[in-house]
Amino acid sequence: MQSSRYPKQPTLAVGAIVFKAQKVLLVKRGKAPAKGVWAIPGGRVKLGETLKLAAQREVLEETGITIKAGEPVYSFELIEYDENGAVKFHY
C-alpha cells in the first residue's frame, strides 16, 4: 500500500556547488533521502522562485553563507522506490 506521504508528482529542487580556495562547501543532510550523508547544499524550489534565487536561499538557510549563484549548469533526476515498488522520492 502506498503511503499518503509519498509524492503525487516530481519535486523541483536545486543544489549549489560553492567553491572557495579550491575547496567545495558540503553540508550533512538532515532529511531523507540520504539522511546523514555529506552533500552540496540545496533543496526545493518555491513557487515563483528562479533556480538562481532558490540556490542562494538554500545555501543561506543551510550554512549562513550568502552567495551569488551563477547560471544552472547540470540537471539530473532521482527516483527512489520502496520495497513494494511505489515511488518514495522523485526529484
TrEMBL record:
Keywords associated with the record:
Hydrolase
Q: Known InterPro entries for this protein?
A: Nudix_hydrolase, NUDIX_hydrolase-like_dom_sf, NUDIX_hydrolase_CS, NUDIX_hydrolase_dom
Q: A GO molecular function for this record?
A: ADP-ribose diphosphatase activity
Q: What is its EC number?
A: 3.6.1.13
Q: Which SUPFAM superfamilies match?
A: Nudix
Q: Which PROSITE patterns match?
A: NUDIX, NUDIX_BOX
The enzyme class is hydrolase
Q: Where is the Nudix hydrolase domain?
A: 9-91
Name the protein family. Answer: Belongs to the Nudix hydrolase family.
Question: What is this protein's record name?
Answer: ADP-ribose pyrophosphatase
Classification of source organism: Bacteria, Pseudomonadati, Thermodesulfobacteriota, Desulfobacteria, Desulfobacterales
